[in-house]
From TrEMBL:
Name under which the protein is recorded: Short chain dehydrogenase
Any one biological process term the GO annotation gives: sphingolipid biosynthetic process
Pfam families tied to this protein: adh_short
Any single GO CC term annotated in Swiss-Prot or TrEMBL for this entry: membrane
Organism: Microbulbifer donghaiensis
């Protein structure tokens, strides 16, 4: 178990980011929580974790799409707690719609938050990081193999995987590790919103890679970061999905198409009404 002296985490007001932040606080780390907002419940969870582990935390409000805000917040985090040993970007959004129903504004919004936001975070954090530190970007299983209804989300997450891959080449020779985290479905508030409004065909296909609770996903992610792993995929079903899609792409595509046809057949009576 590694003690990350100072961790800067974006999107840490909820979901995976919050889960990682509380775990680090229980270890005694200093954690800079970056997000648009922080609820009373999340603040209480951070306080409780800090008390158990003698960690410290601070909240810095940012819009991940605003480069100047992100750079300013990271600089302030460093001023308060010192250079980050871990910088983790978990800020993200999802819009799950078939391409024909997706507007240009929606597409640009998702790419701006997920991909441009990852760039903003990395460009703000890296100048403050020293040899032995680690930069981690949360992509998605959708960044390895996309899904029906993921024109915006899949595109943005493929971009995050590409960005992390490039940064790995450029940063690791300098002694700064890079991790790309590619979870399948994790039952976060963002996913709850997707399940309430997302395309029903997409939601059925997502079941192929399985679903994890936040605690299980965070435990796996943090263990991977501690071990210095490049690609971290929580969950055995997600790992298997990634393996088959990478090494047997045609088999994987045919399997998905078969499932797609079955789901669309079940949807026909509903559409007819």
């Amino acid at each position: 178990m590694k003690l990350w002296t100072h961790a800067v985490i974006s999107g840490a007001g909820s979901g995976i980011g919050l889960g990682i932040a509380t775990r680090l606080l229980r270890r005694g780390s200093k954690v800079s929580v970056l997000d648009l907002q922080l609820s009373e419940g999340s603040a209480a969870a951070l306080d409780c974790a800090a008390e158990k582990g003698t960690g410290e935390w601070q909240f810095l409000r940012i819009d991940i799409t605003d480069a100047a805000q992100v750079h300013g917040a990271v600089a302030e985090a460093v001023r308060q707690f010192g250079p980050p040993e871990l910088a983790l970007n978990s800020a993200g959004i999802i819009i799950n719609k078939a391409f024909t129903n997706l507007t240009a504004t929606e597409f640009q919004q998702v790419v701006n938050v997920n991909l441009n936001g990852s760039f903003n975070f990395a460009s703000a954090a890296l100048p403050h990081m020293r040899a032995g530190a680690r930069l981690a970007l949360i992509a998605s299983m959708a960044g390895l193999t996309s899904n029906y209804g993921y024109a915006a989300y899949g595109t943005s997450k493929f971009g995050v995987v590409g960005l992390a891959t490039t940064l790995r080449f450029e940063c690791e020779p300098l002694g700064i590790g890079v991790s790309c985290i590619c979870p399948g479905e994790v039952r976060t508030p963002m996913v709850a919103g997707e399940n309430a409004t997302g395309n029903p065909i997409s939601l059925e296909l997502k079941k192929l890679a399985g679903s994890l609770d936040v605690d299980s996903a965070c435990d796996t992610i943090l263990a991977g970061l501690d071990a210095g792993r490049w690609q971290i995929i929580p969950g055995m079903r997600s790992k298997l999905t990634a393996l088959v899609s990478r090494h047997c792409p045609n088999v994987f595509y045919r399997l998905c198409c078969r499932l797609l046809q079955q789901v669309m057949q079940r949807q026909k009576p509903l559409n007819a009404e």
